[in-house]
Amino acid sequence: MKNNKVLITGGAGFIGSNYVEYILQNPEDEIFVLDKLTYAGNLKNLETVSDKITFIKGDICDEGLIDKLFSEHQFQKVVHFAAESHVDNSISGPSEFIQTNIVGTFNLLQASYKTWMTGPNALKDEFGNARFLHISTDEVYGTLGETGLFTEKTSYAPNSPYSASKASSDFIVRSYFHTYGLPVVTTNCSNNYGPYQHKEKLIPTVIRKAISGEPIPIYGDGKNVRDWLYVTDHCSGIYRALQNGRLGETYNIGGKNERNNIYIAEVICDLLDEMLPKNTSYKELITYVKDRPGHDFRYAIDASKIEKELGWKAAENFESGIRKTISWYLENRDRL
Ligand SMILES: Cc1cn([C@H]2C[C@H](O)[C@@H](COP(=O)(O)OP(=O)(O)O[C@H]3O[C@H](C)C(=O)[C@H](O)[C@H]3O)O2)c(=O)[nH]c1=O
């Protein structure tokens, strides 16, 4: 007998599918994955676990479908990954971001509210431990200068349509806690990397361009800084926040691996020189290109709240995680 019915939205995407694999190491819950299978979702990401989950193809913006799924399955937990996530796409076409990230999140909150909080069994019996875990991003805080860290108390100052849509969804989640008492927890993560990441993001782009001998595009002067978090470390943080996070709270999850973009490109090239040698260094392919409009300069996370309260710690540092990541892409070149 399984403990809980858990709905994982966006579970065929990069972080979602890693999370599904991660929790199925201890298969105490019944897992339902809901995913629209946009260009960024891929059923191949769930190949190793397909016999252990129920997969539903569908859109979180489809209110009727969401209501139907909740009334049919009576989920006790929701882990909400589904989102449009690529900043460059949000600049060229923001509409999908507003729909999926804001309206889609609202539909899930509303269905959770109706299922868990209305009627005579409100938050009792099988819904006594109900949880809505909302996965968000450090980009809601805007940009840092050379120093400082984002804490959970940092004011929101999103700069791209993507981060503004995530900030909006964070606020709607927050409002469901304060207004209706919905049992929510939000996590805000830094830049993830690792197996199954879509090829549009920086790290797979550098690997792909390098091995195909094409220019490796680095935006602006390459000095922008991101705080890199190995995806499995993110999954362990999400799991702890879901199990023991305080209701209505937000937890920042970051890898304490601040690196600038040119360093990332150079490290990948150095490792490829070793793992897939050719006559000249891959570094010769690095090319500076036009900057991203509104490009945030630096993200860096203070993760002390989740470390102290929930005993979480990142296990991987960037230099070990990137080697594993490159090995995975070299073995799965169709993913580049
Ligand atoms: C694709 C690409 C990116 N870049 C630069 C732009 C950024 O400074 C950095 C990382 O870019 P990427 O698009 O991979 O990731 P971010 O824009 O930092 O955002 C990512 O991390 C956060 C936390 C999320 O929440 C987003 O969902 C996620 O996409 O490399 C380049 O220089 N060249 C390229 O070809």
UniProtKB/TrEMBL annotation:
Co-factor requirement: NAD(+)
Segments forming domain NAD(P)-binding: 7-325
Gene Ontology MF terms: dTDP-glucose 4,6-dehydratase activity
Enzyme class: lyase
Cited InterPro entries: dTDP_Gluc_deHydtase, NAD(P)-bd_dom, NAD(P)-bd_dom_sf
Catalyzed reactions per annotation: dTDP-alpha-D-glucose = dTDP-4-dehydro-6-deoxy-alpha-D-glucose + H2O
EC number per UniProt: 4.2.1.46
Keywords: Lyase, NAD
GO biological process annotation, one example: nucleotide-sugar metabolic process
PANTHER family xrefs: DTDP-D-GLUCOSE 4,6-DEHYDRATASE-RELATED (PTHR43000)
Family, as annotated: Belongs to the NAD(P)-dependent epimerase/dehydratase family. dTDP-glucose dehydratase subfamily.
Name listed for the protein in its UniProt record: dTDP-glucose 4,6-dehydratase
